[in-house]
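fwd from M.: "can u put these together and see what the complex looks like"

so here's what she sent:
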Amino acid sequence: MANPIFILDETEEGVVATHTARVELPVLVSPTIEENRKKFMNTIRPSLVGIGCMNLSNKGFEFDSSFVSFKAKSRFTAFAEMMKRFSKDDPTGADRFPPITIFGHADPTGEPAYNKRLSGRRAKAVFGVLTRDAAMWESLFANPFGGDEWGKKSIQHMLQNIGGVPFYEGPIDGAITPETRKATKEAIETYQRARGLKDDGEAGEKTRKVLFLEYMDEICQFKDGTKFKLDPKEHFLARGKDKDHKADMQGCGEFNPVLLLSKDEEDRFKDKALKPERDAAYERDRRALVFVFKHDSEIDPTKWPCPRVGEGEGGCRERFWSDSKDRLRRDPDQEPAGDDGVPAGDGRREFPKTGDTFACRWYHGFAQHSPCEAGRKLWVVRLRVDGPKKDQEPFARRAYVAHAGDADTRYAPQLRGFTTDEGQVVIPVMDEVVQMSLKVDVFGLEKPPGGEDGKSGRNGKGDPPKDPGPDSTDKDADEGFDVDRFEHEDQFLELKLDAGQLVPMAKEDLPAQQRLYNLGFGKGVPGSWTPEVFDRAIRGFQRSRGLDVTGNLDDSQDTRARLKKDHEGP
Amino acid sequence: MSAPSRTHVVKSGESLSRIAAENGFGDIHTILDHPNNASLKDSRPNPDVLFPGDEVFLPEREDKIEKADTGKLHLFSLSLPLVFLRLRPKDLDGKLLKKEAECLLSTGDPEDPVPLNPDGDGIIEREISATLPEAELRVIAKNMKMDLLIGELDPVVTLSGQRARLNNLGYFAGFTRTDRKLFRWAAEEFKKDKAVSPLAVKEEDIDEVEGIKQKAFRDKLEKEHGS
């Protein structure tokens, strides 16, 4: 992929993101002399590479069941738009969507077998929306399971959210009072008349089918309002070869939580009266994930380890880590803040932080690099140049290439792209301690404005999603511009990035030195400066920013805050 | 020109056939069968899978002197080791490619890319120069494109060799020396699929140089990879 698409769109209802962290590696092979031709060869098997994901959080489901909420609409829209972008990257040029698979998850309270079924129902609900499978929804509606009951509430919710003017405007209560019962019946009658159905005021199977499909169309569309619909025989990993959709959707039960409460918290929550509090604490674990794979990825469902949605959890256990028990352990609460004022942690374990809370090794393989599960670590490097009036301008739309790993080996994955309009390079951090080298084409031509990266590059959370604009212009801007090469491959600016080297701003000198150094002040390795070098660097920074030149970081003008602000950019 | 005997220290990317070719030996056995290389031969069953730092004794080499008249055309044939690139591509499910599956192999030759079809064992083969450092393989039907680094494969008794084989077999084991989490993941997945027991791979089971020392794991990994 010459110019990787970068999408990161997060709301309360979930995350839609591209996977940036996997880069294809070169294959290391051995040659064979003639006499050994019978003996040796090199086997090469591709691995399943995820390119994007959607995490539909518990807030994307209504009344804590498997019923997909209207609030999930923005997630489906973002997902649809991402799939559209991927379809432009179809290597055959046929504009196809790449294949997906769906995983449902439950929180780690209750019985494993129960949770396995519950999580499967969430996968089915999402599958139903994406493929407009009203029968699948009907089976969920008609067969409530434990606390997962759609019932009248779901009818009310749907009638409230379709058709422009709501059919139902009362409270979503499951029609339990005489007033709401009457209002719901009337709303159903109005709906039935409007859709040419028999107006008996009962949301029977025929009415439900029409209602389900209309509601699905309402929540699952592109930005321009056209339907986003996937074909179960084309757009799923196993292409629907298994009649129960093995490998196209599955439930992980409670085995892959992103959050585990501390042991002390769990002990406290054994009190049944605290169930609502416990459920709220574990909300993050109740979710559904959609993973998108590289174009043409197709697998044989008989070789897929995950059991079907309707099957027990035995198949899941088959694929567990050897130390799965330890991964699901609850840690005791830890000591409160010590002398240094830093809290020692609350005993909770979270996948984005510790990377080891999934019992299933197979699932861990997909999730570990996914921004939808693992959180994300990104380097956002802002490049600036001195402008004509001594102010700094972003070094925008220039080619860059980033190498990961040991720079001296040829076994280093590469990422190529262009700096954004703001002069940013966004690179995933692939390994806790890896070094990256970033080479920027300083002598080459500036790419015309309006290219892919310039529009979609974002600096992590907080930013509102940018309008990616009509896709046709992206292609025009790229035309005739070789995104794979520098103008002069041997002339570039090289920067070294060390993961984990930049520590949070505190009172110590090291972070200040690193920030000064990154902004172009000081000399030598940050952390090893002599007091004179440090002093000169601070003075230089203060002078350039029009602050009082004191050589002191902690004067009244707060040089420290300015340093942090300038380093982090707008 | 003759060359006196010397010891060559293997660098990354060097197979014995490449070392032989670059030092004017037409037959790798001149090197491999020399008594001074007995321990190398013993520890590296595949002479084309060496480890950086391995020492290869290069025996004294006497070159033939051919007399020839000026003004006439003379043909001398230079013998170099005959070397092949043998690849067995599989699909995501681990199934071999069918005979009809068209593959393209590029080695930097003018006639590139050369179309090849897998033989009955799913193997595609092409003769290459012993000094060729890289090639590119495409499998048309599967939309697969792979960059191959030739001679970079380390022995299976090393961590880097194990990592490369796991990566090649579709178990993403990372690419840096320090990433033990990915390596553990890949090793356990491989063992599960290939029924190598015990399954558990612990932090302390992974030696920084020699990788996993379990013989059953090494043997299975070498067999599955084919080298």
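replying to her w this: The domain at 83-149 of chain B is CATH 2.60.40 (Immunoglobulin-like).
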